[in-house]
Each structure stands twice: as C-alpha cells, then as structure tokens.
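User: Last request for today: this protein with NAP, please.
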Amino acid sequence: MSGISFSLQGKVALITGASYGIGFAIAKAMAGAGATIVFNDIRQELVDKGLAAYRESGIEAHGYVCDVTDEQAVNAFVAEVEAEVGVIDILVNNAGIIKRIPMLEMSAKDFRQVIDVDLNAPFIVSKAVIPGMIKKGHGKIINICSMMSEFGRETVSAYAAAKGGLKMLTRNIASEYGGYNIQCNGIGPGYIATPQTAPLREKQPDGSRHPFDQFIVSKTPAGRWGEAEDLGGPAVFLASDASDFVNGQILYVDGGIQAYIGKQPS
Ligand code: NAP
Ligand code: GCO
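Assistant: Here's the final one, the structure of the complex with NAP:
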C-alpha cells in the first residue's frame, strides 16, 4: 500500500482501565502495531494481573495505579508517565462502569458515580494529556462510547447520559484542538462479551440462554456478540497516521446493530 501507514512504531499509548476486557484487547492490538503500552487500574492487584497478562502475550507494558476520577492523581500519573516512559501520543479513554438500576430506584449518588467514571474522567484525563500532545505537535484521543451514545433502554439512564455526553465531548475536543493536529474520535462498541456484560449472558437455571442474550443476537446482523478483539483494528486505525483527517467521528463497531430495523415477527 503506497504511503498509508497504520504503524504505531515509536508511539506511547495510554489506555485507561486496561488490565482486562476491551482496554486490554485494544492495548494488545496497538502493541502489535508497534506502540509502547501504558495502562492504569484502580487497584495494585489488578495492575499486577494486567502486567502478567501482557507479559504472557509478549508485551512489556507499563502499569500504574490511578483512579481516573481523581484529578490530582491523574495529573501526577500523567507527569510520572511522561518522565518514565515518554510524552503520550495516543490516549484511549476506556475505563468505565455501568449500574443497571431502574431510574426511579436509582439514587442520585449512584447516578453521579457513573457520570464521574464514564464522562468526567475522560475530561480529566484528556485535559492532563492534551498539553503534551500540543507540544509534540500531534495527538490521538479515542473515547470508548457505546450503543447507549445513541439508544436508551430500561435501567441504564446514568450510563446512557454519560455515553451520550462522551460522544459530544469527543466532538468538542475535535473542534477545540483539531487545529493543533489532535484528532479525537470515538469507538462505539456493540454488545461485547466482557465481564461488564457477563450478567446479560448468564445461563438460566434450566440451562437455556439468558433472554437478553437471545435478544442481542437477534438484533445483531452478525448473529453473535462481539469479542473484545473485534475492536483492535478500528482502534489501531484511529490511532495511526492513516486517520489524520478523521476527526470528531464515532466509529460504531457493532456487527450492524445500528443499521438493522430488527427481525420481522414469525
Ligand atoms: P470491564 O470489563 O468492566 O472493564 C472496565 C475496566 O475499567 C476495568 O479494568 C475497571 O477496573 C476499570 N475501571 C473502572 N473504574 C475505574 C476508575 N475509576 N479508574 C481506573 N479504572 C477503572 O468493561 P469492558 O466491557 O471492557 O468496557 C470497557 C469500556 O468499554 C467501558 O468504558 C465500557 O463502558 C465500554 N463499553 C463496553 C461494552 C461491552 O459490551 N462490554 C460496549 C460498549 C462500550 P476494576 O476492575 O477495578 O473496576
Ligand atoms: C447494557 C449493556 C450496554 C453495553 C454497551 C453497549 O446493559 O445495555 O451493558 O450498555 O455494555 O455499552 O454498547
């Protein structure tokens, strides 16, 4: 291919909350494209588990303990990474939580906690990383959005509000810092088989599939749940020079969910 580069050689990539799940798979794909991997998690034991998992995949990742909702801790963490590993070229705001509670039963405290991790934290981490990107003359920010950046459903009011907000934060970072050669895009995964969605896939006591599991498979033209690895290629593309004129977009990686009106009743 003439002149098109998907290589991340020489780039430092920070993926938040990436000791397992989607973050881990994205980090692995980026390492495969040549990037140096930095990740964080809230607890040391998870960082240690993550480091071992990366090592097992032949990747010498740099792991740190940091709660992405704590602005002071994030600023100290980013300064430490810049001193120990290098200035960050690629940021993936991946750390996230969900609380599935009907809105009328949800406390304001729980609602705020979801907004704090899924929306305020990407603001805090991006704010800490952008000055280094401006100095370097380039940067890539990838925000992990969701089907819930577009859709609602029962029990996920806080998560949908946060992920909808994250879509708009993405567009705003692109608007505000595009002139500094910083591209900020989102990836909107469909339904991906990770610990976060495990309760939706649990087998019923009689051994049959969870009704939500069947529902998602029927809503997905691909006819299956996504695997975390399905997000690797799109993440490498959005982190590489190949996407230098792509800014403020959300790339939905959903097996076709958003294109599909749904199965006709039999
Ligand atoms: P996951 O398996 O639950 O992993 C989330 C990671 O984020 C965990 O390592 C978690 O650490 C970490 N984390 C949570 N709060 C944190 C904090 N305050 N500071 C630092 N790290 C924190 O989730 P996943 O399914 O891989 O999802 C990753 C991202 O993709 C999330 O933003 C999620 O909303 C989004 N997403 C997931 C799906 C899906 O179907 N799975 C679809 C669309 C979007 P702990 O283990 O310590 O909590
Ligand atoms: C839910 C799910 C979703 C997914 C994902 C979809 O309860 O509906 O957990 O929100 O995790 O974000 O893209």
